[in-house]
Amino acid sequence: MNHALRIITTSPSETEGLGLKLGRFLKAGGGATVCLYGDLGAGKTTLIKGIASAFGIPERDIGSASFVIVAEYETTPPFYHIDLYRVEREDDIDNLGIWEYIGSGGIAVVEWAERLSELPEDAIKGRMNYVDENSREIIIEGINEKDWHNM
Ligand SMILES: Nc1ncnc2c1ncn2[C@@H]1O[C@H](COP(=O)(O)OP(=O)(O)O)[C@@H](O)[C@H]1O
Ligand SMILES: [Mg+2]
What we know:
CATH superfamily: P-loop containing nucleotide triphosphate hydrolases
CATH topology: Rossmann fold
Strand order of the largest sheet: 1-7-6-2-5-4-3
Radius of gyration: 14 Å
Shape: globular
Bound molecules: adenosine-5'-diphosphate, magnesium ion
Strand content: 25-35%
CATH class: Alpha Beta
């Protein structure tokens, strides 16, 4: 069954470690779209650094994509880091053509997924909350728990 997983991390490197596990899970066929929710500083980009490292993308290449809305990495499968922070309206999102990346056969990881009005049915959702300076709560929905625990 797919219950939500709730994880508390107590450092950025722990969040990256969780991201690495999630990235390996995606790579093993566990999913293709990850939608991340949470305020500025919640740790979305930190988690993505870990996810990306499972695909061989160096952490330093993952930016806080404030200026780049879609960063594409030519990995196999292709990896898309989408950051909708700067996007305000639904129209803008449609004009960005992000639906060419999401569900395209590549791996798409989306920050500020609150701004999407629709999601692929099988999207994995990660809600990230600030607990205190060094701790974050991460609630993950949409993964097969048995497969996750066998990773
Ligand atoms: N447990 C933690 N997990 C992730 N980031 C943390 C944690 N504790 C402190 N931080 C800090 O919080 C900030 C998270 O920033 P970032 O990942 O860019 O967030 P977002 O992309 O959600 O805006 C970083 O400065 C990071 O060092
Ligand atoms: Mg970010």
